[in-house]
Design goal:
9 strands, alpha+beta
Length: 215
């Protein structure tokens, strides 16, 4: 029986769905991002809001995980999580991170880099209150990134939190939002013959400079 490893080198895909041209892309990267995100949602790609978050620990060891974008504007990209998790601890020690969206069906990638800050308490409270009840209970039940003895720990914690807070669990003090303030964006569009389109936007003297990168 052959293993998956036997065929990996032979896997090929020709990227031919679209192109990314400097003259047609937005001058502001946030506008370009909104355009692509809207197209991903309209195309019904699976979880268009999912993004990879990369952080770096104090020992310079990087780590990644998937989080969900919950908002964006001129201030940056927002997601919510446990501040005491591994990512939270790494961001506390090194408040710089990278995000990546990969919309496979559209043959597109967006990469975003910048400084990360916590959103204010009012914004975290408002979003937490909008979550389904079971998600609010879950925020209390999970000591995220800690070693636990088994799933029964989560089930027990959830039952305790549900009995304590009933239908109105407040936002845990260890849970809230982060905002990545971009200083660099990159938009990647797959093209034929591996001659992909890559446009980078970077901050320069308070304005965005748009550049084409070799694929």
């Amino acid at each position: 029986m052959s293993s998956p490893n036997d065929s990996l080198a032979a896997l090929r895909k020709s990227y031919e769905r679209a192109e990314l041209d400097e003259t047609r892309s937005a001058e502001d990267p946030l506008q370009q991002f909104e355009r692509w995100l809207t197209e991903a949602i309209d195309a019904k790609v699976p979880e268009p809001n999912a993004m990879t978050l990369a952080t770096v620990a104090g020992d310079l060891r990087p780590s990644t995980r998937i989080v969900l974008i919950k908002g964006y504007d001129a201030r940056g990209i927002v997601w919510f999580t446990n501040y005491q998790s591994r990512k939270g601890q790494e961001l506390a020690g090194n408040p710089f991170a990278a995000l990546q969206f990969h919309w496979v069906e559209l043959e597109r990638v967006v990469r975003i880099e910048g400084r990360v800050e916590q959103v204010d308490a009012a914004e975290s409270d408002a979003y937490f209150a909008s979550r389904p009840l079971d998600s609010r209970i879950g925020a209390w039940a999970s000591p995220q990134s800690e070693v636990i003895d088994g799933r029964q720990v989560l089930v027990k914690n959830a039952a305790i939190a549900a009995a304590k807070f009933l239908l109105s669990p407040p936002r845990p003090p260890h849970w809230g939002g982060y905002r990545l303030v971009p200083d660099r964006w990159e938009f990647w569009q797959g093209r034929a013959s591996r001659l992909h389109d890559r446009l980078r936007y970077r901050r320069e003297d308070g304005a965005w400079r748009r550049e084409r990168l070799a694929p």
